[in-house]
Every structure is written in structure tokens, then in C-alpha cells.
What does this fold into?
Amino acid sequence: MPHVSNTVKHGGMPGILFSNKPLIFMKWQTSKVQISRSSYQNNIYFLRKLLGPNNKMSSVVKGNAYGHGIKTFVPLALECGIDHFSVFSVSEAYEVFQQTEEYKPTIMIMGMIEEEAMEWVIVNEIEFYVFDLDRLNSAIQTALAFKKKALVHLEVETGMNRTGLNEPEYLNALEIIERNRQAIDLKGVCTHFAGAESIANYLRIEHQKSKFLKMRELALNRKFKVDYFHSCCSAGAVRYPEMLHGFARIGIMQYGFWPSFETFIEYSSDEIDKTDPLSRIISWKSKIMDIKHVKRGQYIGYGSIYQAGSEMKIAIIPVGYGNGYSRSLSNIGRVLIGGVRTVITGKVNMNLISVDISHIPNVRKGDEVVLIGKQGEMEISVADFGDASKQINYELLTRLPQNLPREIVD
Ligand SMILES: *Cc1c(COP(=O)(O)O)cnc(C)c1O
It folds into this structure.
């Protein structure tokens, strides 16, 4: 076996590597995500206006803050006055908790809690959904054992048929809570609509609304003091403001995306100014790795899905499906280079794409490439891809790898 010296193995750059390893490796990621403070401020301003002074907003940061990165996003949200965060799991709650220890915002878990984690959740006053009686009983046991109150939101089944207590279970849960006042604080009663962003679901949601109002009455009739009866996500807050009851769980819109194009049309039909009041806060950027000339008639990349129709110049960009850039964007995806919108040529590879730069003057190796976001006057929005690749906003965003460096910019 040939001997490989250290210097050769590390690309002839000893010393630099070893002095500050983690930082340098982070910098060497082939793309990065930027989060815009001013755009977030704009969205929060809009959402506060939309919700009005009497409705509190919880910032939903599940899915690593919809791909934006909890570690980067949560401090920004705090800075903009957010004091309530909703997550799916205990590990996400813990991440938010670590970012916010000084400020002690409310953290609410809407999904999974492992039995062993109940102690941490209750001791640290993390609020959580209860959607079955097992969890309610385990919460009571833990709360009693640690002399803390469990801060509970009862999730009720109204027609989504995901998680949630049906009516008899709910009544049962209310009774159990009544008997265990010293262990349980009933913070909320809640449900989730099955697709409030689409008019196609109108009837189903009307049914869910009346079911939820009935569940609300059942608690009120029994003289339960409940902080919030909450049911609205972003689309719910736009479409069914009468269902807000003081509280909304806002995910996608705070990041600057409409839950669906339909929701935007419906909102803007009542407005004189039809410009989009939301602003995307995420950009995803890379750099040109290589430039190549291709002769007319030749194929670009794997297989034969892209044939050069004339002499072409292409740029190679070190981002592919292994970096969260969906394969379904082969021949379809768009990027910005030099303020010009251009198209992916051929297949998305694991770590590479190539794009047409024949029509863009003065392009050089190392030039910035915008995969998502603005460059000059132009913008590539995730929704553009969404339409093209049949992936919705949520999916593309949440597939952005956790290990991409993320930074806040103005
Ligand atoms: C994800 C989620 C939300 C937020 O939905 P958006 O459409 O992103 O605003 C609200 N409530 C629950 C239960 C959720 O799972």
C-alpha cells in the first residue's frame, strides 16, 4: 500500500485545517442559507395587523423552523417580540429551550413525547398537547412526583382523523382534570383543520368548525377556565378569523409564504393594493465551481435529457439532491446568476447541477448563484419550484439539510 503523507491527504494545506477545525469545515459547505431580518420584521408586522390586537401568535418552528434553522431563526423571532413557540417533538422543544433560556418564552409541543421525556417537559414548564388518556395519566403521575403542574392542551378530534380525543374521551379527560387540579393546568383546547388552505375542503372544515365550537361549549358549561381555544394555522387565520378565539399557530406565513396561491387570492380580493404583503426571509446561495463550453448537438450530464441546441456555455454548481436540491428539478429548476434568471441543463446530480449561462455576460468562476431568493431585481421563490416540481413550499424548505450554514442578514 502506498504511503500517503498527511500534507497530501489534506490537500496540501496542513495547519489551517487543524487550528480551527469546525469553523473551517462549516465555511467549506458548498452552499449557505441566509435569513433576512428586515423581511421577517415585515412579515411579523403584517401578521400582527392580520390577527389584530386580541389574538396572540405562536411561532411554529417544527421541521427545523421549516428548514430555516431553529438555531438561527428562533433568536431572530425573539428579537421581534415573539414569546410563544410551537414544535412537534421534545428534541425540537429542547433546541428552542436552549436558544431562549434567558427569555423564557412559552414552548408548546404539538406532537410526540416519549414517556422518558415527560419529566423534562413538565419540570421545565413546557406546554404540550394531550390527545389520549394514557398521556394524560402519565402527565398527572409525573407532575405529582415532581410537584409541578403539567401545562396541558387537550387536542380534540373534529374531523381531521389524525390525533385528538373524541367527545366521550374528551369529557372523560375533563373529569380527570377536574379531579387532579393540583397536577394539571388546562392551558388550551385545540384542534387542527384538514386543509384550510384549499376551498375544496370547505364543507369538511365547516363541519370541523361546528364540532370544535361544540367541544368549546362543553368545557365552558363545566366552568373550565381555559386560556385559549385554538384551531387556526396560517390559512385558518386568513380564512376563518372568527375561529381565532385569541390565539393562532402561525407557521408558513411568518416565513413569507402563503399556504396556497388560493389563500393569497382570497386575501387580496378584499384589498385595494394587490401586491404581496409577505416577503420571503430565506435565501439559498452557492457559487460557480466551473465553467464549460459545449458544442451544438452534444448532451449535457447523465443520459440524454438535455441536448445543446447551439454552442453553449454552462456553469457547474456544487449543489445537488444530496444537498436538498430536488431531483425533480432536472431540466426545470431555475437559478439566478449575475441578476439573470437561467435554467438547469440536464439532470440534478447528487452534488452538482449545471446551468445555462450562454446569455449571461462576464460570468466567472466563484460568482454567486442564488438557488432561492433575490439577486438584483429578480427572485426565485420556492413556490416557483413548487409548481414545477409538484412539491409544495413546506416540503422543499424542510428538506434543506440541517448542516447547511445559516446566517442572519439585514
Ligand atoms: C404545522 C402546524 C401549524 C402551522 O401551520 P401553517 O400552515 O404552517 O401555518 C399549526 N398547527 C399545527 C397543529 C401544525 O401541525
